[in-house]
């Protein structure tokens, strides 16, 4: 059984479903194979693994991104619980600049989301005690770490929880209208 890849409304952002083999002992799954992902059209080098735990439903992390030369693509999955995952297109010149896509990523669905370079990324926990694991295509660089205000009206994100739990950093992020042009759209990839 192979992985399946589904494009979202912004086709560069993808939902990935993996085979899960289980019996009365539990299950086994291969969460990432560079070769299989490349064969499915997700061809990116991933260099670092991150693990985030959120104790409370309604914890919002984002909208985050890193700028070149440390820009990051992300492959996000949930080991326990569920999140609403959001990606905002920051590529100037893109036909979808400033638009977002979202998807529920959960341990129950056993799905993943791929967010390419040039997108702000955020997640909202839909359950308490949620664990999110994600791979990134470059190392963390504090000097290149940027963000976008999670509730910028220009984005029109329909977060399902209004009383969110945020870090002070995420409360103070800029609006889309105030972001420099960090990323340029390079057109459709062959």
Q: Could you provide a short overview of the structure?
A:
Helices cover 5% and strands 40% of the residues. By secondary structure, the protein is mainly beta.
**Overall strand count:** 15
Which strand order do you get reading across the main beta sheet?
Answer: 1-2-11-7-13-5
Number of helices: 2
* Straight-line N-to-C gap: 26 Å
Unreliable sequence segments:
none
Any descriptors?
single chain, 190 residues, mainly beta
What's the topology here?
Elements (H helix, E strand, L loop, with lengths): L3 E4 L6 E4 L3 E3 L2 E3 L5 H6 L8 E7 L5 E7 L7 E7 L1 E8 L1 E2 L7 E7 L4 E5 L3 E7 L4 E7 L8 E3 L20 H4 L11 E2 L6
Parallel strand pairs: 9-15
Antiparallel strand pairs: 1-2, 2-11, 3-4, 5-13, 6-12, 6-14, 7-11, 7-13, 8-10, 8-12
3D structure, described in words:
- The chain is mainly β.
- It is 5% helix and 40% strand.
- The strands form four sheets. Strands 1-2-11-7-13-5 form a six-stranded antiparallel beta sheet, with no helix packed on it. The chain has a five-stranded antiparallel beta sheet with strand order 10-8-12-6-14, with no helix packed on it.
- The protein is globular.
- The two termini are 26 Å apart.
- The mean pLDDT is 95.
